[in-house]
Structure formats: structure tokens, C-alpha cells
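JOB MANIFEST
job_type = single_chain_structure
chain_count = 1
residues = 703
[input]
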Amino acid sequence: MKPFSEDESLAYLTEQLAASGRQEPESEVRPLATELGGLPLALSQAAAYLVDAGIGCGHYRSLLSDRATHLTDLTPESGALPDDQTTTLAAAWSLSVESADRMRPVGLSRPMLRLTSLLDPNGVPEAVLTSPPSLHCLADQRDALTSTAGEPVTAAEAAGALRTLHRFSLLDHDPAHPQQAVRVLKTVQRTTRESLTADDLHTLARALADALLAVWPQTTRDHALVQALRANVDTLILHAQPGLYADGRAHRVLFTAGESLGEGGQVMAAREYFASLATANARYLGSEHADTLAALRRHAYWRSETGDVTGALDLYEQLLVRLRDSVGPDSPETIFARADLAWCQGRPGDITQAVATSSELLSDFLRVLGPDDPGTLTARHNLAWWHGKAGDITGAAAATDELLPEFIRVLGPDHPATLTVRHSLAQWRGEAGDAPGAAAAYDELLTHMLRVLGPDHPATLAGRHDLAWWLGQTGDAGQAADAYAHVLSDRIRILGENHPDTLATRADLAWWRGQAGNAQEAAQEYKLVVRDRIHVLGENHPDTFAARADLAYWQAMVGDTTQRGTPPSDDDGTDTPPGCQVELFLLDDTHPGVEQSTRITLRVRPDPGHPWAVSDSRRRPTLEVLALTPGPADIEPARAFYDHRTDLEFTFTPRRPGRHIIRFTLYENASGAALQQVETELTVTGSDIDAGLLVPTAERRQG
């Protein structure tokens, strides 16, 4: 008999219960009818058990989910079957499987049903069940069950077994939807699993883990497939976790599933996944096993990606102590953990330490792994990156340009790491001042990314995001805003509204809409970005600080200084506007006298939340600085531009001894508004100037 539809199943189960004086709400009956798959035999025997045991549909569903309860315990005994039935549900399915096994391809239906019993009932990609590891397992299972030595199983025969099981209503096979082609009733899966021994479970678990890994795509371009594979890994863990540790190591598919979460944008889920994996690895392998420490390392990495850099740094420090003790200081695991630590150190701004650690690391990578190891190449790339962040943009660009042919030679032109190097090259080109060249480089890079990774890959979206930035830097704020709007739509669709990358695109879209002339809209949107970053990333995340600074900037542009840098709030109180320090230093150690020159540098240090405290220097407003000394002295240059990357240098030459006043006025270059003015005094006694830090007196100005 064909399965009932969902509504037919509901009506049947409701009628059977009513005949015995049972009335249950549809909200309880419908889920049970759905879980039983509309099979008339399953529905009738479930109704009989409910009446006989005096339990409700919800309780029955919980028993079905309880792995300690056998399915035979949830159906009436053979003498109490309803509707003159003579066969229990489990026995009926067993008979169906025996009949299916006699159909061509002979002997493969039961082995195939065994494989599917450990996978996601809501959808198994057909490629998993026709992959070489599955074919090998099917052949072994068939031979063991029939006590014969048959021929190898082909993919066509495996697909044939699926069709046979489909005809016997033991599973649903829909080749038109390959990512979820095979669906199996939970009750059928359960009956099958209950017939397996512990050795069977271990064997099937390893084979399925190999099969899942064999079809896992190298990139996450096919999100539907990756999501289906992850769901099947989760189900495999649920039913046969010990088998994934049968050879003394954690199966690689466990790590692959976790990485796919983070690479797909689910950074918080990846963080929690690897924390759980580390716990499981420790339970099955020991707390100091290499796979336990590897899971902890990935947990630390994804913890840093969620914004908890401090927590990640602590974890890395603890992990390195354990790695040095367990596998030694020169093991690849230890060196890669140190590389992660170096990268993490630079994220909150400790670039000097990141450069020092990366330099030391590169020597160890070369010594231990050799010049052509991908890890060594990545270490060279990261060192160049931190040099660039430290201000040596020309050197970073040259080192990265030198690296690109090496990545192409070792990994190929389409490897994601090679594309990352191209991305960095485009970035440094823009940082060096060539915004049109950077935009062109990103445009060319996106052609490769679309072909290799697909339009929805996070790296492709990041490339489009950066291209939009450099389009704005060429002077077309409107085009940049339009480009960001398109990226935002796709990031919301793919990553969700609260993903950190989505929030970054919202922030930059607001920035360029403001630059295009809509400062009020920019200020309003930044209020929402600050609010959402606090919710998603926390108060102390660097991106939250950056958003506060950008909000303060646009509030200043529209004249709203009462709550500078604060998100929407019900609090009617006002914040004290954040401060800004202008620091002046004497560079020369000597004490010049009258008619002798000395160099003075100017550096702006805004407090968090000040309009100029944007973490990305590219988005800080260029300031025009006018230097004036009213007395008999010269200062050159009299006019300079401050880009927040390097200190401004002035040359001061006094013409007489005594007190000299030097006044610096800072203007917002785009609008010409006077933003701040500071004055300082220098006393020239005879021929001596006090060397050291000059403390300016700042005067706040609106504008």
C-alpha cells in the first residue's frame, strides 16, 4: 500500500484514537503522523500502542527518539496487533528488505539500508552513497551477509539498490535533487540500526566518514551540498561517534565539517563546534593527543574570529605550552600554532609584536618544513602583511609581488591561498596611493574568484567589498555606495544579517553614502551598526570601537555632538565628547640655539569614539595642518597634510632667545572646517632648547 499523505495520516491517526475514546490536539498528532512517514502499518500499530499503553503522542515521539528504547518495545505484541494484522512493524520491514535483496542488484538492498541508517533522514547526497568508499563497504557488507565473495560494486549498482528500496517504500530516492536525493524514515533507520553489532557500527561509521570526505568540495561554492554534508556528519556523530575514533585518531571529516562552518560565515558556530570536538577528542583519545590539541587550536582561531581576541591569545599561550611538552618545539603543530598566535597578536593592534613573532617564525618554517611548503609561503605572506601594517607599504607590496609566482608554482593559480596573495597585492597597491590601480586589480581578481570559488563564496564577497572601497577612493562615492548596496544584499542572503562581514558592509555603505552627500543618513545608519555590533561582537570588540568612531564623525558632520559615538538608547543623558590629543616631539638630541634648526613631529591620538579614531586609516579624514609661530622664528612647512599613517615633521628655527609660541590649527580637508587648534611654548635660553616631549594645550572647536 502506498504511504498516506500528511493530511491522510493525520486523519487516520486521529480517527483510530477517537475510536478508543482518545482526543488529542492536532499539534500533538500531526508531528507523530509525519514522523511515521504516512506508512499505514506504522500508523495503525502506533495507534494501538498508544491506546494500550495509555500514553500521549508527544510521549510516544520522545520514546522514538530515545536510543535506549528498542522499536519492538513501541509496537503491540504479535497477539495484540490491530486490524487482524499478523506481522509487527519491524518484522514487516524485515520481510520487505529480504524481498528487496532478491531483486537486482542482488544482495545490495540491506547493505545500502545499513549505510543510510546512520545518515541524515532528511536528505543524503547521492554522491556519498555512490562514492568509492561506499562502494567498497557495500561489497564487503554484501559478501559478509551472503558468505560469498562477489565482484566489486559499481556506482550504477549502488544507484540501482536505491531504486529498489524506493519501490519497496523503504526510502525515498529523488535523483532530481542530488544534494538531498535519499530520504529515509526515522523508524526504518532505527529498526536497521538495532540489528547492527558494535563492530558493524564502527565499520559503517569509518566507511561513511571516508565517503563524506571524498565528496566534500575543495571550496564552499556549493553551499547546499556543504550544508547537507554537515548535517550527515552530525547524524553520523549522533549514532556512531565511537567508530570515528576506531583507529586511534579523530577522522578528518570531523575537522572538515567544523572548518566549513567558519568558512561559510558561521564563525560562532565554528567556535562552539571545535570546543565540543576538543572535548570529544579528549574523551576518546586523551587530553594531550595531537587531535585534541589540534581541535583546541582551531577553537582558539575561531574564537578570535568572533572578536574575542584576548580569550584567543590566552588559549594559544596555554596550548603552546602543552604542544611543546607533548610534540616538541619543532613539530609542525607547534609551529603552526605559533603562526596563529602571531596573527592573533596583530589583530588588536600589537603590530610590532606580530612582526617580531612572524620574523622568528619564518626562520623556523624554513628550517623545519623547507622553502616550498605551503606553510612557509603563508608565513612569508603574513610577515609581508604585518610589515605593511607597520607602515612599510612599499616593502610589503614588493615582498608580496615576489611571492605570487611561488604560490602559483607550488599551489597553482586557482588555489584559494594564491587568490589571497592577489588580494593582498591589490590592497597594497591602493594603500600606496594608486586607488584606480587597486580597483582595476580587484576587478581582475574577482574574475578569477567567480570562476574558482563562485559568486557566493565569502572570499568573493570580500573581494567585491574591497573593490567597492577603492571605487570610492577614486572619487566616485556614489558608485562605491551602489556597489556596497549590492554586496550587502548578497551578504545578508548568504551570511545573514548579523554576520560580522555583513555588519562591515553596512558600515562602509553608510560611510560612502555620507561621502556622497547624505551625512544625516550615514549618522543614522551608524547608530544601528554600533547597536548591532555591540549585540553581535560585544562592547570591546575593535570593530565596535571603529563603528563608534565613524558614528561620532558623521554626528559631527551634521552637528549632532550630544551623544557622539553612541548607539540608539532610551537613556536621555548625554555623553561627554571624547577627547583628542595632539602630541609634539623634538626629534634631535642636540640643543640648538638661536638660528639653529630643530625638527618637531606632530601626531594625532584620538580617544575611542572621537571622529578621527577610525581604526582603518583609509577612512580617517585627511587633515590640513597650518603651523604658525608669531614671534621671531621660522617654521617649515607652514602647511601640511596629515593622513594618520605617519607623523608630520616640521622644522623650527628660532631667531632670538626666550619664549616662543607655536600654534597648529587642524582643518578637515574635504570641508575646510577648523576642527582643533593647539598651542605650545618653547623656551630658548641662550642657545638651548629643552629636548623631549612638548605638551600642547588643546582648544576644542566645533565644526
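[summary]
DSSP finds 27 helices and 13 strands in the chain.
Residues 561-565, 570-574, 687-703 have pLDDT under 50 and may be disordered.
exit_status = 0
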